[in-house]
Amino acid sequence: EPEVTQTPSHQVTQMGQEVILRCVPISNHLYFYWYRQILGQKVEFLVSFYNNEISEKSEIFDDQFSVERPDGSNFTLKIRSTKLEDSAMYFCASSVGSHNNEQFFGPGTRLTVL
Amino acid sequence: AQSVTQLGSHVSVSEGALVLLRCNYSSSVPPYLFWYVQYPNQGLQLLLKYTTGATLVKGINGFEAEFKKSETSFHLTKPSAHMSDAAEYFCAVSLNRDDKIIFGKGTRLHILP
């Protein structure tokens, strides 16, 4: 069964460093999303991406964040200069984008900023 | 703006007992409603969803939920709890087919032997 994959599963970085979180969405999906979940809190929407551009972004998704689909399979989230409060689980999701709104979530990347 | 409220951050039920996890939503237009489950150290898995049509929705693992527009509720139930149901459950809402999903804060379900 096709699934969304994410790498790495766990990333530890120093404050101020750049990180890139990688996702491989399901191959025939057209809509892509990033969410994050700070420990003990709810899952929050960050950004949606369709047709090679951002469809919507939340107030969390400031200038420090960017997304890219560098090739036909990967979807990346970059944080330019990480802050302590960026420590969270980051989930990638994708959906077909037709009649079915089921977003398929990846297993997540746990980002720890020291 | 849409929002989701889940009553009870922790719910404990005995194995074999009824599971009831409460969810109320706020939306200016008819919403799409979801329940997701998150097992420890895993991602989010869709349990069930309501888009249109029948208001009683059946999902995986014996769970079901009923959309009640008059009560703005979408409570999740399962007639008989199993130890493997222990997990975190998130109610969620979106406005359009491919829109962002707004999650509730989650309810951790504990199953007592």
As a percent range, the share of strand residues of chain A is over 45%
How would you describe the shape of chain B?
A: globular
**Count of β-strands of chain B:** 11
Of all protein chain pairs, which has the greatest interface, and how many residues does each chain bring to it? A-B, 28 and 22 residues
The total beta strand count of chain A reads 11
**Overall helicity of chain B:** under 10%
Radius of gyration of chain B: 13 Å
Topology as H/E string of chain A?
A: EEEEEEEEEEE
Q: Tell me the fraction of residues in β-strands of chain B, as a range.
A: over 45%
Secondary-structure element string of chain B = EEEEEEEEEEE
Helix/strand structural class of chain A? mainly beta
Kindly report the average pLDDT value of chain A: 92
* SS summary, helix count of chain A: 0
Integer average pLDDT of chain B: 91
User: What's the main sheet of chain A like?
Assistant: 7 strands, mixed
Helix content of chain A: under 10%
- Which runs of chain B of at least 5 residues are low in confidence (pLDDT < 50)? none
What is the rounded distance between the termini of chain B? 41 Å
Written account of the structure:
The complex is a heterodimer of chains A (114) and B (113). Chain A is mostly beta strands and 114 residues long. Helix content of chain A is 0%, strand content 50%. In chain A, a hairpin with a 5-residue loop joins strand 4 (31-37) and strand 5. Chain A is globular, with a radius of gyration of 13 Å. Chain B has no helices and eleven strands. Chain B has strands at residues 3-7, 10-14, 19-26, 32-38, 44-50, 56-58, 64-68, 73-78, 87-94, 102-103, 107-112. In chain B, strands 2, 4, 5, 9, 10 and 11 form a six-stranded mixed beta sheet that branches. Chain B has a five-stranded antiparallel beta sheet with strand order 1-3-8-7-6, with no helix packed on it. In chain B, strand 7 and strand 8 (73-78) form a beta hairpin.
